[in-house]
Structure formats: structure tokens, C-alpha cells
Amino acid sequence: MPEAVPKPSPLREIVQPFIDLVHAPRALWAVNLSSLVEGFVYFGMLANLTFYFNEYGRLADQPTGWMVGLLTAGITICMLFFGGRAPMTPSLPYHWYDTPNVRFLSISDFRSFCRDKGFVVERARFLNGEKEIRFWPNLRALGAIFLLSVGESLEAGREQGTFPPEDMRSGISEGLGK
């Protein structure tokens, strides 16, 4: 007869995430705090921009909202048309695939990675749930399936016994848990 599993307390289920948060590592607190401050600055600047258009541009509230919306949409559209790539900064000087942390990447980043490492993208499908995305997949797709082949430079390395290249071996073994 299987043992009965004790039913967890609903109060404990509500309180436990907060207890875990208090005991989280300092690095997690630092990342979340910096992200929170960045959000405050971004939305604070939007509020300042709104006040600026109201006071100095002598615009009413609705046209001011349209102007701020237009500017934030312009930022998003510029990111779309100018590459949509994950950033590399002096404080995070890693490519998405070489970082010590888990990072999300864009389709443009993965295609660039394949080109840099000598892989050829034979076919690609971009998905959002079960729906295939054909228009602006870098912006709209939540997942992708790539069919890759080994490029000429990697094929030569396979014949010489140097495949995969040295700079990829550590990542492959780490990914396989070895």
C-alpha cells in the first residue's frame, strides 16, 4: 500500500517563495536590483518626456501620449531593423554562447554563430507554439528548429581528427554534463 503524501499547507505554499527569496544569493539580488533601477530610470524618463511635451511643447495630454508612444515604438522598430542582436558590453564581454550564465539569444545571433563556427544552415523553421512564423521571425518566434550541416572548414577538421574545434569542445562537454 503506497504511503499517503502529506498535503502541503496552503499558507506554506504562499510563504515559501518569499523565504527562498530572502535566502537567495547576493548576485541574484544585485541583478534584480539593477534591473529594477533600470526600469525606474526608463519609465521615469518617459514620465519626464511626457511632462516636457506638456509644458514646453504645449501639447495636450492625448497628443503627448501619442508622441511618447511614437518615440518608444521608434526605439523598438530600430532594434528590429538594426539587427536585433543580444548586446556585448564592457560589463558583459561575452557572446551569448560563451557566457558563464544562461542567456537567451535571437535568431540573428544563432545564424551569426553558425557562420562564425563554420556550420551551414540548410533549413530553418520558426515557431510560436504550434504556429509557424514566416514574417519577422527574429521578433515574433518563440522557438526555432535549424537543420545544420558541416561547412567545408569543419569537414576538413573532421578528416584531420580536429573536429569539433578546440574552442567548442569545452562547451560541448559542459552541455553534456561531462
Structure characterization notes:
The protein is mainly alpha-helical and 178 residues long. It folds into two domains: 10-81, no CATH class; 107-175, no CATH class. 55% of the residues lie in helices and 11% in strands. The chain has seven helices and three strands, in the order ααααββαβαα. It has helices spanning 10-22, 26-55, 61-81, 107-117, 137-140, 152-160, 166-175, and strands at 119-128, 131-132, 143-150. A three-stranded antiparallel β-sheet has the order 2-1-3. A hairpin with a 2-residue loop joins strand 1 and strand 2. Helix 2 crosses helix 3 (61-81). The longest helix is centred in the first third of the chain and has 30 residues, at 26-55. The radius of gyration is 24 Å and the shape is extended. The two termini are 39 Å apart. The relative contact order is 0.06. Mean pLDDT is 77; it is low at 171-178.
Structural class: mainly alpha
Which descriptor suits the 3D outline? extended
Query: Distance between termini?
Result: 39 Å
Order of helices and strands: HHHHEEHEHH
Number of domains: 2
How would you characterize the largest beta sheet? Answer: 3 strands, antiparallel
What percentage of residues falls in helices of 4 or more residues? 55-70%
Rounded Rg = 24 Å
Binned strand content: 5-15%
Secondary structure blueprint with pairings:
Layout: H1 10-22, H2 26-55, H3 61-81, H4 107-117, E1 119-128, E2 131-132, H5 137-140, E3 143-150, H6 152-160, H7 166-175
Antiparallel strand pairs: 1-2, 1-3
Helix pairs in contact: 2-3
